[in-house]
Fold this sequence. Notes:
The protein is of the alpha/beta class. The chain is 41% helix and 20% strand. It has a 6-stranded mixed sheet, with helices on both faces. Strands 4-3-5-6 form a 4-stranded parallel sheet, with helices on both faces. A 3-stranded antiparallel sheet has the order 13-15-14.
Amino acid sequence: MREQTITTAEGLQKPRDRAVIAGLSSPRLDAQDNADEETMSELEALVETAGGEVAASVLQNRASPEPRTFIGEGKVAEIKELVKNEEATMVIFDNDLSPSQLRALTEDLGVQVLDRSALILDIFAQRARTKEGRLQVELAQYQYLLPRLTGMWTHLERQAGTSGKGPIGSKGPGETQLETDRRHIHRKIDKLKEELEEVRRVRGTQRQRRMKNEIPVVAIVGYTNAGKSTLLNALTGADIPANNRLFDTLDTTSRLLTVSETMDVVISDTVGFIRKLPHQLVDAFKATLEELEYADLLLHVIDISNPGWPDQARVVDKLIAELGAERTPCLRVYNKSDLFWGDVRPHGEDEVNISAKSGEGLPELLRAIDRTLDRGTRRVALHLPYDKGNLLDVLYREARVESVEYAETIDVTAVCNPKAIGLVKPYIEGWVEPKEFWEE
């Protein structure tokens, strides 16, 4: 599915693809694999994000999935009639389907059949802009395709008689093509992994440079469409597309943000999380999402106007843990608070209510970031004797020097961390040694 439109005779534009969406709820499926009204609504938003429109929706309750068609022959017939009546061009399932089920459903329904993972991969392929993002998506697509090759080549295996029961001389063409394709895809996967390792190496070099400069890193995370890009735009003036659609940001964008007069941070927007995220994507996007592991602070943006926000927050928390960042300090940022209909907004020491769109609560958020990342950095005025001029070099290395004037002494204004303060404190104007808490 591609984000294309067809112009009708009346001059109106309509999506190229009309889809019937379907889902199965069964006690035999794991909870995260089941479909329900909320996940079906999310699937509809995904279809619209991919450039299509939903013609009809079918949610089935069944004791257990049917091995061949997943939903059973009766429901297949019902969906086929819907496809015909609604002039649908595809059927998209909220559940993941096996290769054989995809093949059987495509044959029975007579239109293209996708599952949720394939749809998400398609959206990612549309949205990725940078070379890194495209590499990650391509790797995920190949990893998704590999186990499905067997089903794709079954028709050739039947013709060729790979079971050994076919005519002499006809054995193997399907199998040969299958093995050729497998080797080709394995080579592509290995090459893509090498290129992504190079991305990680470059990122590591950049990260070491930031650590040397002691600039804290803040990563914005959250469920897709929670308002992460809108928040980054509001804080930094970054020109990131901020549209009301899922997965709008697929490439990490980093900007320098002045939090207070003594603190600058590098703040990064990341791809949105979603339930039932294909595991290939979690693996393929490690080069982007590993920023979380090295971040000094996470801003977990939550769309509090969505009634399902507690479940969405749990999905994000789980993925943060899977990525090894559960010990990183985290501020919960409840976005779209101006649209919240509850009686009492969530509140606490590590919680801030904001509206990224209107700017409400942003000063409080900056104060919370400053408070959480405060490393004892202070702006100070120093008067260095000329015979201590070597300390100016120390300040250039260890602090952020803002001004230098040569008078009776070398007068310096600098933003210093505790290490730098310890080296030059005898020359800091008005310096008083802080008392320990038991001395107060």
